[in-house]
Amino acid sequence: MLMRYYFLGICGISMRSLAVFLRHNGDEVAGCDVSPTDLEFFKERQIEVEQKFSKKRIESADVVVYSSAIGENDRGLRYAKSLGKKMIVRGALLGEIASGYQKVVAVAGAHGKTTTTALIYNILKPYNPTLHLGGVLVEEKKPYVLGDKEYFVTEACEYHNNFLYLKPYVAVVTNIEKEHMDFFKTFENEKNAFQKFKDGAQFVVEGDGGYEAKNIRHVNQKLCFDVWLEKEKIISLKMKIVEEVNAQNALFALRTCKLLGLSDEEIKNGLESFEGVQKRFESVVSPIFEKVIVDYAHHPTEIRNTIMTAKKLYKKVFFIFQPHTFSRTKGLFCEFVEVFKEEKNLAIFKTFPAREKRKAGVSGKSLAKILGCNYFNNVNKLVKFLIENLKGYALVFMGAGNLPKILESKNIIKNS
User: Fold this and answer.
1) pLDDT in tens, 194-233
2) Dihedral sign (CA 133, 271, 202, 145)
3) How far from 304 is each of 150, 319, 337, CA to CA, in Å?
4) Beta bridge partners of 29
5) For residues 105 and 131, what is the distance between their CA atoms, to the nearest angstrom?
6) Which of 132, 207, 255, 396 is 20 to 30 A from 120 in CA distance terms?
7) Under 8 Å between Cβ of 154 and 131
8) Is residue 62 packed enough to be buried (19+ CB in 10 Å), middle (13-18) or exposed (0-12)?
9) Residue 203: beta bridge partners?
10) What integer pLDDT is reported at residue 359 of this predicted model?
11) What's the distance, Cα to Cα, between the start and end of the chain in Å?
């Protein structure tokens, strides 16, 4: 039976994909978002989006969908509850949709899950898999792919235990580090959640499994390495993506697809043809600066990897970091200081709050003060500083916030 769905926060990257899946199934879908974006995208798919929630649409909806980022005091959420509407959180809806596929491959982890998910999809591409991703594929220019019913490849988010709604055929865990402490409270709680995620899967891919990436190098600014299984070299790869950490991500993808029965040749072709994910060490065009990299790194471990790769590729490099959420900055403050303490070529841009208010933690200004680096809360002042001081430098913008969007709106970068 076809249903009417109403999405609160529909423009989020996962929410929009789920809305498209439902619309593709023939369901009626509409939604609202306080910061509506890509309205043409929704219009083409006959999904009506508005800035303020519609009482009329909520009243007529069979199901109201909301994300974990929607606060309990959200007016649309409260109105739907007051009507006794059937409510479903984003993660639960993802689990329901995924259950309609024969083999669900779910990738979780503190770092690398977006790229690993996309790599697995790219290897499986000849088999027409369906994809749900927390980033935008460079080649397809979207965060989802509608495919057949055999494979459902999805990024699995641990925030608010959303990944526990999935029942994977294969669960991939890239790594576990202290993250989302505003929800988990303790690292032990987070590790327990990951264990439940693994316990719910038929097969689990984690650790190294005896595989190793050797002879890691860059050739013409592309990542090259050999894959060894114990004492035997099984494959040599020349990938289009750059960061060395992607050698490990590629091993997770390789092991997953071997478990699914794919050949070494299929795996090699899928890995080497992969174009990447936007904002994952993505080189973007700028009418002002010669070399600009946009990277999603927002955790100290990710930042360390980005800095390492950039310094190997460019003689002169300057880093601009936008912290993501006050609580993360507070919870990992010492780790941020440690990863940046030796970096002289650094500026901090104002914190992206996401779902939070200032009282949730500390801001990027506090981090900049401890580090003794420049701090900017205005993009025009930041750009003026970069133009006046950093000609000839490669600029690397790091963070999961809105700085790339701001730079794009000011025509400072393109195609980010």
Assistant:
1) 999 999 999 999 999 999 999 999 998 899 999 999 889 9
2) positive
3) 38, 12, 11
4) 5
5) 10
6) 396
7) yes
8) middle
9) 170
10) 67
11) 40
| Of 193, 197, 213, nearest in space to 205 by CA | 197
Q: Which residues are bridge partners to 144 per DSSP?
A: 132
Alpha-carbon dihedral sign for residues 259, 101, 64, 137: positive
Amino acid in position 13: I
Per-residue model confidence (pLDDT) at position 416: 53
Instruction: Please state, in angstroms and rounded to a whole number, the distance separating the CA atoms of residues 315 and 277.
Output: 25
β strands within 97-146, DSSP E: 103-108, 130-132, 144-145
Burial pattern 202-241, b for ≥16 Cβ within 10 A else e, equals eebbbeeeebbbeeeeeeeeebebbbbeeeeeebebebeb
Tokens of 390: 């950093």
Place of tokens 């080497």: 272
How far is residue 257's CA from residue 33's CA, in Å, rounded to a whole number?
37
Q: Which residues of the chain have pLDDT under 70?
A: 359-360, 415-416
| Residue ranges of domains in the chain, CATH in brackets | 4-90 (3.40.50.720), 99-272 (3.40.1190.10), 282-409 (3.90.190.20)
Q: Please tell me the predicted confidence (pLDDT) of residue 79.
A: 96
Q: Where are the beta strands (DSSP E) in 239-354?
A: 282-284, 291-295, 317-321, 346-349
Helix then strand count (H, E) for the chain reads 16, 20
Handedness of CA 358, 360, 364, 367 (dihedral sign): positive
